[in-house]
Write a structure and sequence with these properties.
The complex is a heterodimer of chains A (about 170) and B (about 260).
Chain A (H helix, E strand, L loop, with lengths): L8 E2 L2 E4 L3 E5 L8 E4 L2 E9 L2 E6 L12 E3 L5 E4 L7 E2 L15 E4 L16 E2 L4 H4 L4 E2 L3 E6 L5 H11 L4
Chain B lengths: L4 H13 L8 E2 L13 H15 L3 E6 L2 H14 L13 H9 L3 E2 L5 E9 L8 H9 L2 E8 L4 E4 L5 E2 L14 H23 L6 H18 L7 H15 L2 H4 L3 H7 L3
Parallel strand pairs in B: 2-4
Antiparallel strand pairs in B: 3-4, 5-6, 5-7
Helix pairs in contact in B: 4-5, 6-7, 6-8, 7-8
Classes of the chains: A mainly beta (about 170), B alpha+beta (about 260).
């Protein structure tokens, strides 16, 4: 977990629910990351100086005098060519035992692309699966889900698509 | 998101064995991890995708599995924050929460692109549930998986699946007979479904009905099944083989120029 040289630490929680804790704090931004009792949390609500933090791993065992410090940034990912071949958790930390990725730091959850900067999708993506390529061809830039019952091998189909998908 | 350990290891194994691992970036939330952490996974994956699509002009495929478990995490959070739940105990913001993710799919003029293929698991095939229902309004079609009891395999159901962008490429980037062959096959497959209803209700079948049933079985097995792996030209050739074997030219009803070229026998 990161620490900064001069960091304000809050120690007075005013409210605790199953998923969130509340406290009074200033200079806090929406979606900012924080640590509560050593657990990662994110700002989900601001009302004046009242801040509500969503604690990802739950609030069980967090005392009312737990240490809260704000990280001053939303969730971020370091991007570079080195991302290839790696496995990460939801916070973008490696879980495959490899080194940290070096690269440019980017905030996640940026807005989607303005329609005027888009082009009409026009490139076929072939998957080798005839139910897709023959009857429901996919096009690059498309968004489409599989609807499947939980007992169907949808993850195997996804893995095949990942490995075979090729443009022209 | 909410991946079982078995599925996590399966993906890891398949990607490593295929020797393609360097072209794949994975963000994983397993069932062991707190469910609320899942909410960060799509944004993490899409941030990585945007780097490769925008900065490197690459074509990126983003696979999201399972978006139903992502939406479940949304409902956990909103319920715990005492928000008033909407349909199926989902938050009222479900549509925009999902759209924010799916709308990241894009084709850039510079050549880079982000294509999103997701999985939405259904409970008991119920597409009226809030998650698949909202998803269907955002995405450009859906691919519906169904177990075909006739052949004992999982198929991509041609009646309930649709890719809304297919008409931009079929017959243009694929062989010219593609749209006609596709439509003819689906029509004959639908005739087979009618014949099956007749049979199940104890009515006599005509010779044509019998032939559509035979055709449907082979069509399911050789083309609709998800274990098929051939190129599009081969798919079209297989379709022509099945047409020629089971039907007369007039019954298939494909333009003469194509029938002359591809009809077998």
């Amino acid at each position: 977990m990161e620490s900064q040289a001069f960091q304000k630490i809050y120690t007075k929680l005013t409210n605790i629910t199953k998923a969130t804790v509340s406290l009074k704090a200033t200079d806090v931004g929406y979606e900012e990351m924080a640590t509560v009792h050593g657990r990662l949390a994110q700002v989900v609500k601001l009302m004046g100086d009242q801040v509500v933090l969503q604690v990802f791993s739950g609030t069980e065992g967090i005392p009312t005098d737990a240490e809260v410090s704000f990280l001053g940034r939303p969730p971020q990912l370091k991007v570079s060519e080195d991302l290839g071949g790696r496995f990460f958790n939801a916070y973008g930390d490696p879980i495959d035992g490899g080194p940290e990725v070096e690269g440019e730091v980017r905030d996640i959850g940026s807005p989607s692309v303005n329609p005027v900067r888009r082009k009409q999708p026009s490139q076929l993506i072939a998957t080798g699966i005839a139910g897709i390529d023959l009857n429901n061809s996919l096009v690059s830039g498309q968004k489409i889900p599989f609807f499947a019952d939980p007992d169907q091998p949808y993850n195997q189909v996804m893995a095949s698509v990942a490995l075979r998908a090729k443009g022209r | 998101m909410g991946l079982t350990n078995d599925d996590y290891l399966y993906f890891k194994n398949v990607f490593e064995n295929a020797g393609e691992i360097d072209r794949i970036v994975s963000f994983v939330n397993t069932t062991d991890d707190p469910p609320v952490e899942r909410l960060l996974v799509p944004d993490m994956a899409l941030t990585a995708a945007e780097y490769f699509a925008v900065d490197k002009n690459e074509s990126v495929l983003v696979l999201l599995t399972d978006m139903t478990l992502f939406a479940d995490a949304l409902s956990i959070v909103s319920n715990r924050m005492d928000q008033i739940p909407s349909k199926d105990s989902m938050p009222g913001s479900l549509y925009s929460d999902l759209a924010r993710i799916y709308e990241k799919a894009v084709q850039f003029p510079s050549g880079g692109s982000i294509t999103i293929i997701a999985v939405t698991t259904l409970s008991g095939g119920d597409i009226t549930h809030a998650i698949p229902d909202n998803t269907g309004y955002i995405t450009e079609g859906q691919l519906f998986l169904r177990r075909d009891t006739e052949i004992g395999k999982v198929i991509v159901d041609p009646f309930r699946s649709l890719s809304r962008l297919k008409q931009l490429v079929i017959g243009k980037q694929t062989r010219a007979d593609h749209p006609q062959v596709m439509n003819a096959a689906i029509r004959l497959y639908a005739d087979a479904a009618n014949a099956r209803t007749k049979m199940e209700n104890g009515f006599d079948l005509t010779d044509y009905d019998e032939r559509t049933l035979e055709f449907a079985k082979s069509y399911s097995n050789k083309l609709l099944a998800i274990d098929v792996n051939v190129d599009t030209d081969t798919m079209l050739n297989i379709s022509w083989e099945l047409f020629s074997k089971h039907f007369k030219k007039a019954e298939v009803g494909v333009k003469q120029e194509f029938t002359e070229k591809y009809w077998i026998g």
